[in-house]
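Figure S4 source data
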Amino acid sequence: MNAPETGKQALLDSLRGLIVSCQAHRDDPIYTDDLVTKMAQAARWGGAVGIRANTPEQIRRIKAAVDLPLIGLYKIWSPGTDVFITPTLDAAKQVWEAGAEIIALDCTDQLNADGEPAWTLLERVKRAIPEAVIFADVSNFDEAAHAVDLGAEIVGPTLRGYTEQTRLIEDADYREFARMCRELGHRSCVVMEGHVYTPEDAMKALYLGAHAVVVGSAITRPHLTTKRFTDLIGRFQDDWRQAERSSHANV
């Protein structure tokens, strides 16, 4: 395990169970200024053990209202790169200063705006903010293994479906996830995130060895849940994932 310090280990131990991703963009049809706070309060009421949230502003609002561990990220879209989850050291510092105990980073091999693999930021963040726990968002096993080698305390396949190599994938790869749990679980907390739509999906991940499960759209974004239903009813003439993947850079 890459978190030998007592405080970090206690934090990681507290995260066994369901983590709810409470995110809202201003162009979402359900957006209100207090929406993420209500999402987080509902998640706590329902038994969530942690929250995942985007932007320093929303992190601060949630931390003021809900006493749960918080995984923070800062989505910043830039031209010429698909790296958008906390893509810079400054973004990571803003997430930390807003109150997140855990910082989520893109740790794929995608090139960032500086032309470097996204995972190169991980070591810089650990040097600058050694107290923080790092959640490595990856898209496949090799990226997960590399992130753990670099010192990530948490790793999960958050970006499966968001990289060029996985762009057309819509479902979780439970076989690959099981391999992450088997081969990396003794060194890092392997968390299932992405393509978890039902309680049965979550239980499958826990059965395979997940330390925790993160669920977002299926709980907190009813417009996307509705779109999944209408896409199927409409015989897949449209793809709800296009809306989920969309950039909110100009909002």
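Figure S5 source data
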Amino acid sequence: MTTISVPMPKDLLQFIDSVIKSGEAENRAQAIRKAIRKMREQIEINDILEASRQIKAGISHTGDLKKILGKRKSS
């Protein structure tokens, strides 16, 4: 695992600490990892919703869904 250092505004740091205090994360690193995973999940959901919108609009997508999603994850 790689360690990164990120400057954090006081209000976000206080929020992270409140997440820890509430028991949703054990420490700051875990809280940040959870937030990034959630952001990645939301981006993937948005991609699926956009593809669905395009299909309904008559813009077709062809190919293997796993390959299409794999391209998205590697970019």
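The chain has a mean pLDDT of 87. Helices lie at 10-21, 28-56, 65-74.
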